[in-house]
Amino acid sequence: MASATVDRQIAAYNAHDLEGFLATYADSVAVQNLGDTVAVEGRAALRRSTEEWFARAPEVRSEVLNRMVIGPFVVDHERLTGTPDGQPVDAIGIFEVRDSLIRRVWFIPPPPRTE
Predict the structure, then answer these.
(1) Environment class of residue 59 by beta-carbon count within 10 Å: exposed (0-12), middle (13-18) or buried (19+)?
(2) In this predicted model, what pLDDT tens digit does every residue of 62-74 receive, in sequence order?
């Protein structure tokens, strides 16, 4: 079930369990902001970017506020807390799960802060 895979990914992310987090992704995973070019391609690149993020945000956690599941796609409205600037960040993640692994992720980032 696609949502179970994404749940495991979020639990590992919140525990800063890098190996558990990466185990939920396909070797060929692609991650991008919706409409942009692929920012992270492959599990090795995901490892590097996640290690860097965890180092910059050692208290970061994700809470799923809303979820929709349609076949292999899980659409989560997430709130990140513990970010480097201390401000919570809302984003939408769209996860494509095949054979119990996340194959592709698209993020809709929040709009820039105006204050």
Answers:
(1) exposed
(2) 999 999 999 999 9
